[in-house]
Amino acid sequence: GTARFTIDPDFALGTVDPRLYGTFVEHMGRCVYTGIHEPDHETADEHGFRGDVSRLVRELGTGLVRYPGGNFVSGYHWEDGIGPAADRPRRLDLAWRSIETNQVGTDEFLGWARRQGVEPMMAVNLGTRGIDAARALVEYCNIPGGTAWSDLRVKNGVREPHGVRLWCLGNEMDGPWQTGHTTAREYGRLAAEAGKSMHQVDPSIELVACGSSNARMPTFGEWERQVLHETYDEADYLSLHAYYEETGGDRASFLASGAQMDAYISDVVSTADHVRAVRRSTKRMKLSFDEWNVWYQSRFPGERALPLEERPRLIEDTYSVTDAAVVGSLLMTLLRHADRVAVACLAQLVNVIGPIRSEPGGPSWRQTTFHPFALTARHARGTVLRTEVSGPVIETEKHGPVQALDTVSTLDPESGELTVLAVNRHQEQSLRLSAALRGLSAPYRVTEHLQIADPDPDAANTEAEPDRVVPRPVRDTAVSAEGELEAVLPPVSWSVIRLT
Ligand code: AHR
C-alpha cells in the first residue's frame, strides 16, 4: 500500500527543544559504576570516567541528562556523595537493594556533564527527606560562595557554582513502590513548599512536579489534577513516565505503542489546562516526559528478589530491530507534541535499559535503539510540521486501528534542511511513502536516506556482534518531477530521510 501526506512549512506545530533529546543516569545497576564511571578501565580519564562511553554519549547527541534517580533518589542522602571519596559511606540503597559506595556523587556527575557538554537535570529526595535537604542541595550547587553549603562545595574543589537550572521535585511519588509514597494532596503540598524554598535560594531555577508513574496508575488523572492544583505557581513542568514492551506475542500493539503515548500526553495536557482554567491562570504548564523507553518489565523479578550487591546487573535489556522501530516511533510522538512537551529523557543512558552497553574492563557498544535516537537528535531540529497521513491501517488489540506509517517532519529554519522520520509498523508488507512537498522556497532533493531494517526483526547488537544492526543508506529515494517525495519502507523499519 501507499501512505500519503503533505509537507508544508505553513503547518508549523512547535519548535524542537533540544532538551527533548534527554537521557537519564540513575544510581541503579551498572548505569553509573562500570557504565559512565570506571576508574580502572583502560579508557578512563583523570576523573575516573570511561572515555569510550563518553565518546558514545557524545555521538548519541543527548542534550540533557537527568540524575541521580529514579526510585534511588527517594532514599538518597546527597551529602553522602560529596567530599573526599575515601570518607564516603557505603549505604544500603533500598530502592534497588544494592550497596551504594557513593564514589560518584553530585560534584563528579555535574563535572562529567559539563565536560560532556550536556545540561544536567537534578532530582531532590521528597521520599525520606524534604524541604531542608532540597534547599541545601540547591545552595551547594548554585550559590557562588560565602554560605556554609556553597563554601563546602568550594572546599571540595569546585570553585565555580554548577548552575543547575532544571530540578525534579521527587520521583514517582504516586507509586506504592516508592520510598515515601504518598497521596496527591500531601505530595503536592510538600512539592510546593520544597519548590518555594528552592526558588528562594535560586529564583532562576525551573521545577518539575511529579505526575503519574504511568497512565495505568489507578490515581492517574486525579493525581495530576490535585498535584497541579497545589504546585501550579512553583512548578514549570509536570512529569510523565512510560515504558513499553511486547506482551503475549502481540507485536502489532507493541509497534503501535506511540498511539498510547500520544493519548497519555493529550490526557495530561487536558488535565493541566483544566487546572489552568479553574485557577484563571495565564500560565500554560509544560510537560517533562522524563522517563520513557522500551523495557521488558515483565522479566524483572522485583526489587525484593534482588541479591544485595554492588553494581548488580539490573535490567540490562538487549534491544532488537523491532525495539529500535518502537523507540524511533516514540520519539516521533514526542516531537508531535513539541508545543507542550519541552523536556524528555530516554531512560536510561548506559546498561540499565540503555542505548549504550558496556562491560566492566571490556568494550562498549551501541544497541539498536541508539541509532534512531542519535539520528533523530542530530537531524530533527527546528520547526515540527503537522502532517496527516492517509494510508493502510493496522488493527491492534490494545490501541484499535493505527496508521501503518508513523511519521513526523521537521524544517530547520536556519539550514533549510527538511527531515522526514518514518516507521513502517507493518510486520509483513513494505509500504510506499509518498509526500507532497508544498510551499517550500526551492526545489528540494534527497541528500540521504538511512534506514534500520532487517530480515530478522529480532536481530540485535551484542558484545560479539556489536554492529549487527546499523543504519544503512537507501539509494532509490527521491523527489519526483511532480514534487513528491517517494520512498519504500520495508516491514518493521525506521528511516530518516534528509532533504535540502
Ligand atoms: O528507570 C527505572 C525506574 O523506573 C526508575 O528508577 C523509576 O523512576 C521508574 O519506575
Automatic annotation (TrEMBL):
SMART domains: Alpha-L-AF_C
Family: Belongs to the glycosyl hydrolase 51 family.
Quaternary structure and partners: Homohexamer; trimer of dimers.
One MF annotation (Gene Ontology) recorded for this entry: alpha-L-arabinofuranosidase activity
Organism: Streptomyces abyssalis
Catalytic EC class: hydrolase
Catalytic function, reaction form: Hydrolysis of terminal non-reducing alpha-L-arabinofuranoside residues in alpha-L-arabinosides
Pfam families: Alpha-L-AF_C, ASD1_dom
Organism superkingdom: Bacteria
Protein name, as recorded: non-reducing end alpha-L-arabinofuranosidase
Highest classification ranks of the organism: Bacteria, Bacillati, Actinomycetota, Actinomycetes, Kitasatosporales
Domain Alpha-L-arabinofuranosidase C-terminal: 290-493
EC code: 3.2.1.55
GO biological process: L-arabinose metabolic process; polysaccharide catabolic process
Keywords from the named record: Carbohydrate metabolism, Glycosidase, Hydrolase
